[in-house]
Design brief:
The complex is a heterodimer of chains A (234) and B (436). Chain A is an alpha/beta fold and 234 residues long. Chain A has one domain: P-loop containing nucleotide triphosphate hydrolases (Rossmann fold, 3-Layer(aba) Sandwich). Chain A is built from eight helices and ten strands. In chain A, the strands form two sheets. A six-stranded mixed beta sheet of chain A has the order 6-7-8-3-9-10, with helices on both faces. A four-stranded antiparallel beta sheet of chain A has the order 2-1-4-5, covered by helices on one side. In chain A, helix 6 links the parallel strand 7 and strand 8. In chain A, helix 4 crosses helix 5 and helix 5 packs parallel to helix 6. The relative contact order of chain A is 0.20. Chain B folds into two domains: 198 residues, no CATH class; 225 residues, no CATH class. In chain B, helix 2 packs antiparallel against helix 8 and helix 10 runs antiparallel to helix 11. The longest helix of chain B has 41 residues. The chains are: A alpha/beta (234), B alpha+beta (436). Chains A and B meet through helix 1 and helix 2 of A and helix 1 and helix 9 of B. Bound molecules: adenosine-5'-triphosphate and magnesium ion. The site of magnesium ion (MG) has 3 residues of chain A, from helix 1.
């Protein structure tokens, strides 16, 4: 663990306005993630877990509070720079796999490298993609299109896509939500393995078994993160 | 690295998009095709019409930039002009007389001379003695004591006397035989070159080649050496001035109006000529100058028509644009998740918008290429089918202006049809799409 945390959130707030009146979703979130850390976030449906991940992943910006990435405040970073940071710093895994159905597994992973942020020649690109597919154990399925893959295999393609740029932080939003227990455990194994190489992991899940494999387990309630055991054992 | 990385990424992403939606790209092209073709056709048609009209006017008036000078003349000044200008091409003079070819002692079939399509019709009823030529000049027909001559196998011609080769100014194409030779001494029997109308008259009415220059006593026997196209409907014969003048009295020469053709180089010779003419003339020699500028003149006339037709073509194009726009918006709607995902992995929104725009631009350009191809082929087909009958379509190359118009139409349609979807693609909120 180095001194400067990967991520440090300090009093982050977010209010969302749908139809009707504005609803405060996050009201002062504090969170620190160091390299190699793994954090699970639990919470009721609708408590704002996905909203929090979208702030961490720079899909959206907080209303107030500080967001330090490697010690630099990026709470109000402009979109161009945010796109570059998403490419360089983050890997994303979602409950739905978001694979492009007209592309093969290899091309689906490759798309994270073909994003207008730098350029790798075809060969190097292919080598990286194959290494990532190897890492999640499905290199032999590289030429398959999503329709010919099982749910677990599809999710592993998505994880390979998240890993291929060697991100500093993995953000996973209910990655096992669409999978059976056994396959889900396998997916968590793959994500967990990434933390051994110094990658930070923030995992949103409803499954306590998966959550308990992380170093820390937090719960999002009333727009704030609290350690899970406080809620359970007090 | 930065820019080329972007560009290459755009190529890969755009290529994947088009490959995944080949049929859709094709249908967009179909919807756009008619509009672009209409633009190409209108532009090609107007350029060709313009060219044909201009070529016609060049024959009839003179090339643009030519100075035409009309001079009052007299029996004394005309020989001086002919002498001064003999064999020169920097200033060329013309004198227009009237002659009759055919049976002697009969009334020509086209008094005036008038175009042959009015042959055997008296313009103002049978008893009229007034005849008019195509330029609107009218004169009283000569009449002998017995009244109007009987009609006969004779054609009246405009006889144009040339001091030198006029073709640098009015580029008559030779259609048969050869053009006048202005080198060497004049021949005793004048050589004539006919225009189409005169040549037609001679073959159609099987005229004996006896020529009578109006109001002259002696009749030369001309040799007809060729036919040219001069875009004149009045039967006309061109002849070397020195050859024709041998048969004309100085009194009748003085009645002919003298017209000069020159461009910048001819100015010194013109001044010499004017000085020499003034020296022998009692009346002042009054030159009336005009510079031919038909391009501008007919440009104005045709432009209005062109804009009207282009406007209609643009409407057809607009319908095609609506088609592309429809397809483009539907496609972006379908690709919301893809775009959100691409942005999530770091693709800049501008690049995505650019790719969407580029996809429709490529569609527009491909359509333009197809429309231009069809235009070129169509013109060739029209040329082989109607080339003989329509001067305008004979052996013409596809005008580049029409190609440019097609490409511009394709680009504009691509931009109009792609901009909206591109903006929409750039605005997709990732957070909403990716929420689980
Ligand atoms: N664009 C939006 N505008 C307004 N409200 C929104 C918007 N998106 C989400 N919300 C609301 O914000 C709250 C938090 O949503 P979020 O998706 O973060 O919950 P979550 O904790 O991820 O739930 P789940 O466990 O079901 O995924 C929800 O009540 C939702 O209705
Ligand atoms: Mg959620």
């Amino acid at each position: 663990m180095s001194d400067v945390p990967l991520i440090h959130l300090d009093g982050l707030t977010k209010t969302l306005t749908g139809q009707g009146e504005p609803r405060p979703i996050l009201s002062g979130v504090n969170l620190t993630v160091h390299p190699g850390d793994s954090v699970a976030i639990l919470g009721r449906s609708g408590s704002g877990k996905s909203t929090l991940l979208s702030l961490i992943g720079l899909f959206d910006r907080p209303d107030s509070g500080r967001y330090l990435l490697h010690g630099n405040d990026i709470a109000r970073v402009p979109e161009r720079r945010a796109a570059r940071l998403r490419s360089q710093e983050f890997g994303f895994v979602f409950q739905r796999f978001f694979l492009l159905k007209h592309l093969t597994a290899l091309q689906n992973v490759s798309m994270a490298l073909v994003n207008g942020q730098g350029w790798l020649p075809r060969r190097k690109r292919r080598a990286k993609v194959m290494a990532a597919l190897e890492q999640v154990g499905i290199a032999h399925l590289a030429r398959h299109k999503p329709a010919r893959l099982s749910g677990g295999e599809q999710q592993r393609v998505a994880i390979a896509r998240a890993l291929v740029r060697e991100p500093k932080i993995l953000l996973a939003d209910e990655p096992t939500g669409a999978l059976d227990t056994e396959t889900g455990a396998l997916v968590i194994d793959v994500l967990h393995a990434a933390t051994h190489r110094g990658c930070g992991l923030v995992l949103v899940t409803h499954d306590h078994a998966h959550a308990n494999r992380m170093q820390r387990v937090l719960r999002l309630t009333d727009g704030m993160l609290v350690p899970e055991h406080q809620g359970v054992f007090r | 690295m930065g820019l080329s990385g972007r560009f290459r990424s755009a190529l890969v992403i755009g290529g994947q998009g088009i490959r995944a939606r080949k049929l859709r790209t094709f249908l967009s092209m179909v919807s756009l095709f008619l509009g672009v073709l209409a633009i190409v056709t209108v532009q090609a048609g107007s350029v060709l019409a313009n060219r044909a009209l201009l070529a016609d006017i060049e024959l009839r008036m003179a090339k643009d930039g030519t100075t035409r000078v009309n001079l009052s003349s007299s029996g004394k000044t005309v020989p001086i002009a002919v002498d001064t200008l003999a064999g020169r091409s920097d200033v060329v003079g013309t004198l227009t007389a009237t002659a009759i070819i055919g049976e002697p002692g009969v009334r020509p079939i086209n008094p005036g001379p008038s175009p042959l399509k009015y042959a055997n019709q008296d313009m103002y009823g049978n008893s009229s003695r007034m005849v008019c030529d195509s330029s609107g000049t009218c004169r009283v027909m000569e009449q002998d004591a017995a009244g109007i001559l009987p009609r006969g196998q004779a054609v009246e011609l405009q006889l144009v006397l040339l001091t030198g080769d006029i073709r640098p100014y009015r580029p008559f194409p030779v259609e048969a035989g050869r053009w006048l030779d202005f080198g060497g001494p004049p021949s005793l029997s004048p050589s004539l070159v006919l225009n189409r109308e005169a040549a037609t008259a001679l073959t159609q009415y099987r005229l004996p080649a006896e020529m009578q220059i109006i109001s002259e006593a002696k009749n030369p026997t001309p040799r007809i050496i060729g036919t040219v196209h001069d875009a004149n409907e009045v039967p006309t014969a061109y002849v070397r001035a020195d050859e024709a003048m041998a048969w004309m009295s100085s009194a009748s020469l003085g009645n002919l109006s003298l017209e000069l053709y020159l461009n910048g180089d001819g100015e010194p010779l013109l001044q010499t000529l004017l000085a020499r003419m003034s020296a022998v003339s009692t009346d002042p020699v009054e030159p009336y100058r005009s510079v031919v500028n038909s391009r501008e003149h007919i440009g104005g006339q045709l432009d209005l028509m062109r804009w009207i037709f282009l406007g209609m073509a643009a409407l057809v194009l607009l319908i095609g644009v609506a088609g592309i726009l429809n397809v483009g918006l539907a496609t972006v709607g379908e690709r919301v998740e893809e775009f959100a995902l691409r942005r999530a992995v770091g693709t800049p929104r501008l690049l995505l918008a650019g790719i969407v725009l580029a996809e429709t631009l490529i569609t527009g350009l491909l359509t333009a290429a197809a429309a231009i191809g069809v235009g070129v082929a169509g013109l060739q087909v029209a040329g082989t089918l109607f080339g003989d009958r329509r001067e305008m379509l004979h052996d013409v190359a596809f005008p580049w202006e029409a190609g440019v118009a097609g490409v511009v139409a394709g680009l504009v349609a691509g931009i109009l049809g792609g901009l909206f979807p591109a903006i929409r693609a750039a605005r997709i909120p990732i957070a909403t799409v990716m929420r689980a």
